[in-house]
Backbone:
């Protein structure tokens, strides 16, 4: 039986990054993955394939709607969904192969099969052909991720009632798609198909889209997406979704409690994800999943069985690849005897629509609830020369700063390239910058980053220069 310092179950961004860091620190490491390809949800059916399709559909959308104004005339434009999906598959294969290369380079043993606990130090690996092997680890890291969630009545049949996984592999452009949930997946994958010509109608339980973000984002972004053709049915409670062969019928209760129905070719269920621990036999290691299906951990990501840790989507907190990665590094360093640090307040969130949406730190609602007195600096993207040059004028940048100390507490934005712009705010906040610090930094002209400076100026003393 092979013995290791660390055995990691699950090869998503949490597991594989943790494995690399363990190996860098001189720990003999093994990783177990039930699928043949490494990389988990993120690389196979999450971040990477969705961004590949977002990029392809964005090119098509621009070519269809914006090129002519730039003086570029095209005729006979057509979206070839099969080629888009094929390119996406190639991107996924290359990226997954990259993880295998990194495992080999770092001398990490990869075991393929379902990992399950035999006891707190032993893991059984069951291959697809049923063959069983066992390995031991002084330390074990659970990094088994998450799966799509759904509620009674909306069970995906994976044909017409689909999850993100099937939506990333459609072989036709639907005429109409219903999307349950105006969260990240609903808006990103809704954008992919909306840009290709599909009519998108979103059915959402909450009164605003992206309900967990700063409320100013939801209000402004609704207007932008409506212009792109999205239809929103807010405050609707979905009762059931039925596959009628060539179409789906969704029944919901509206605000007035009246029954309403919607019909489309497909219904994408995007109401969140749930932690995944199936097949792990947690009980053999003295563990159990909590009511939300998560593995409980303390502040050091350690379970109640001290040599077993858990990271990423399977534990509490944001279900994000970069959060999983940071936790993977944290646990590896902790096992190696170091004293790592992870700032959960500064994990940025990004929605990769166009314009992009990005945020870090506290929302206005959170500051109000905590009784913190704050100032707001707001800057509209349309006031930037660069935005006019590229015709990407939608959105705003908003900076929240402490009223007394001027420390930046939260940054929220809808803007072209917001996914990259947000990092300036994350860096500044990591060093506990004030709004004035950010405002006094020289920003290159003409760029979108000038919007960050202007919002910081606005937060400082209402001193924005270009409004
Ligand atoms: P996972 O990536 O889920 O990996 C867990 C792995 O464990 C899987 O490979 C699974 O097969 C394996 N496993 C499970 N049980 C066992 C077992 N018993 N034995 C062996 N192996 C097992 N996040 C972002 O930050 N940015 C994005 O742009 C983004 N886009 C997304 C788009 C979509 C459509 C989806 C669905 C998610 C997206 N996410 C994004 C979220 C991101 O994918 C997850 O937060 C991230 O993958 C979590 O990483 P993880 O390592 O915890 O788990
Ligand atoms: P989500 O939590 O972002 O959004 C779910 C939405 O569904 C919410 O708006 C919620 O109010 C709504 N909802 C819940 N129950 C409902 C019901 N019964 N009827 C109607 N609406 C209902 O979850 P989503 O979009 O499924 O994404 C799952 C996870 O994947 C997220 O936590 C996210 O962190 C991660 N992800 C991250 C991405 C990124 O970082 N760009 C991209 C895609 C996913």
Residues:
């Amino acid at each position: 039986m092979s013995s290791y310092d660390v055995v990691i179950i699950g090869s998503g961004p949490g597991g594989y990054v943790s494995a690399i860091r363990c190996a860098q620190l001189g720990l003999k490491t093994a990783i177990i993955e039930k699928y043949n390809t490494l990389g988990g949800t993120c690389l196979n059916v999450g971040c990477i394939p969705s961004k590949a399709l977002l990029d392809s559909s964005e090119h098509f959308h621009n070519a269809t709607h914006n090129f002519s104004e730039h003086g570029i005339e095209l005729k006979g434009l057509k979206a070839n969904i099969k080629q888009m999906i094929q390119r996406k598959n190639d991107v996924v294969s290359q990226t997954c192969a990259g993880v295998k290369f990194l495992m080999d380079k770092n001398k990490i043993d990869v075991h393929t099969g379902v990992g399950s606990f035999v006891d707190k130090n032993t893991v059984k690996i069951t291959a697809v052909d049923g063959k069983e092997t066992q390995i031991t680890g002084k330390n074990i890291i659970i990094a088994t991720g998450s799966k799509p969630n759904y509620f009674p009545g909306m069970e995906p049949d994976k044909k017409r009632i689909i999850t993100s996984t099937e939506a990333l592999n459609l072989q036709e452009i639907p005429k109409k798609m219903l999307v349950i949930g105006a969260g990240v997946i609903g808006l990103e994958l809704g954008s992919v198909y909306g840009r290709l010509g599909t009519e998108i109608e979103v059915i959402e339980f909450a009164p605003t889209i992206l309900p967990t973000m700063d409320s100013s984002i939801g209000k402004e972004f609704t207007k932008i997406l409506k212009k792109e053709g999205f239809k929103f049915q807010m405050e609707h409670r979905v009762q059931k979704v039925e596959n009628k062969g060539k179409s789906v019928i969704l029944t919901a209760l509206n605000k007035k409690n009246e029954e309403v129905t919607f019909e489309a070719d497909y219904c994408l269920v995007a109401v969140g994800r749930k932690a995944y621990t199936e097949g792990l036999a947690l009980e053999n290691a003295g563990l159990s999943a909590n009511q939300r299906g998560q593995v409980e951990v303390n502040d050091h990501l350690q379970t109640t069985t001290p040599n077993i840790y858990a990271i990423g989507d399977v534990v509490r907190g944001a279900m994000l690849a970069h959060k999983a990665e940071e936790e993977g590094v944290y646990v590896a360093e902790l096992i190696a005897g170091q004293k790592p640090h992870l700032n959960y307040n500064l994990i940025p969130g990004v929605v990769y629509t166009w314009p992009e949406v990005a945020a870090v730190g506290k929302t206005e609602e959170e500051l109000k609830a905590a009784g913190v007195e704050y100032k707001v600096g707001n800057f509209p993207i349309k006031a930037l020369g660069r935005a006019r040059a590229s015709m990407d004028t939608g959105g705003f940048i908003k900076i929240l700063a402490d009223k007394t100390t001027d420390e930046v507490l939260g940054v929220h934005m809808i803007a072209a390239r917001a996914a990259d712009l947000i990092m300036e705010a994350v860096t500044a906040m990591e060093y506990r910058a004030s709004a004035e610090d950010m405002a006094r930094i020289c920003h290159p002209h003409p760029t979108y980053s000038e919007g960050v400076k202007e919002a910081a100026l606005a937060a400082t003393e209402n001193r924005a220069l270009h409004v």
